[in-house]
Amino acid sequence: MNDKRSARIAVVGLTYPYRGGIAHYSSLFVRALRQRHEVLFLTLCRQYPKILFPGVSQYDFSDQTLAEEGDPVVDSLNPLSWFRTARMLNRAQPDLIVFQWWHPFFTFAFGSIVRLLDKSLQNRVCFLCHNVLPHESSPMQALLTRYAFNKARYFIVHSTPDRQQLEALRPGAIIKQGVHPTYSEFASLSPISRAQARQQLGLSADANVVLFFGLIRKYKGLQYLIEAMELLPASLNCHLVITGEFYDDKKPYLESIAARDLNDRVHVVDQYVPNEQVATYFRAANVVALPYVSATQSGIVQIAFGLETPVITTNVGGLPEAVDDGQTGYIVAAKSAQQLADAIIRYFENDVEDTFRATIRQQTDRFDWDQEIALVEDFLR
Is the distance from CB of 262 to CB of 98 less than 8 angstroms? Predict the structure, then answer.
């Protein structure tokens, strides 16, 4: 492939008006691909039925959206749309078809589309896996995922645990492992200083601020971070900002904060954050904490790095593959409030923020979109 624009690639995935990390990733992935190739973007016109969606809304209410032009043809529940999508792909005859994969709910939609393709096209199918299996998966979900993947030849993953799960589910698959690219776009959507960000959020200019960002679910281990806050010395003047929509019952978290007399130092923002406000929270923070109990990889790390913010996280899944311990953040054991507290104290008392931020800037190329596109182009060759 000497001509960088010679390939025709189809991408099946999510974009605006849907919200969240998968929609952001799919849109930015297509944007990067279009710099080199002709891309047909077939998007979902229905993601989940309302009754199955645990949050307030599936839709993005941001003033500044991350979107790429596509054809909204895939209805997760309507088989007629699966036939229509397969016809479009058979007519276009792309050199490669990349399905964005994030949940077994889409097994029948995506698996059926693949099975309706011409035999020659089935050999050009790639699943780009954000999670091979859900964080809290069941044997039935593994069975569904195996069905979806059965006819596909190529796969891309972003962590070693995902690769291991995939090898067990789909023996003989051709797998490329890369890194989750950085979301630097949020920085350009809202160029804001730390002082301005803290003023907007009502945070003291001299406080040491730890940020927990993203949907609140059990596997993210927020309870351990709340417990860690109680272990910090008052002299550290540390504040925790919890920002994200609760998919768990909020009451136990609020009771835990109150029981530890932390209401003055823990600030809860129970909402999905629109794109143009994302940078505000990361600019206000000195460090981001991801106290996950389990994980494959996390887009939150790459939002943090895109905004040059160090990360304290746990030694689970692919998180240690993204964060360099002692260079761009700290890695601690999961389910340990004491280790989280020790890392936060070490971070502020050793005054490593500027050094860590400089290292993150130096590693920009490691997480850029060119690395992801190179994996796709390997399959084209």
Answer: no
Assign domain 185-365 to a CATH class. Answer: alpha beta
Domain boundaries, the chain: 8-177, 185-365
Distance CA 255, CA 142 (A): 36
What does the pLDDT look like over 154-191, one tens digit per residue? 999 999 999 999 999 999 999 999 988 988 888 877 78
pLDDT digits (tens, 9 = 90+) for 230-283: 999 999 999 999 999 999 899 999 999 999 999 999 999 999 999 999 999 999
Question: Residues 141, 104: contact at Cβ < 8 Å?
Answer: yes
Alpha helices, H only, 99-202: 107-115, 119-122, 139-149, 160-169, 185-189, 194-201
User: Considering the entire predicted model, what is its pTM?
Assistant: 0.91
CATH-assigned architecture of domain 8-177: 3-Layer(aba) Sandwich (3.40)
Phi and psi, residue 309, nearest 5°: -110, 125
Give the three-state DSSP class for 43. strand
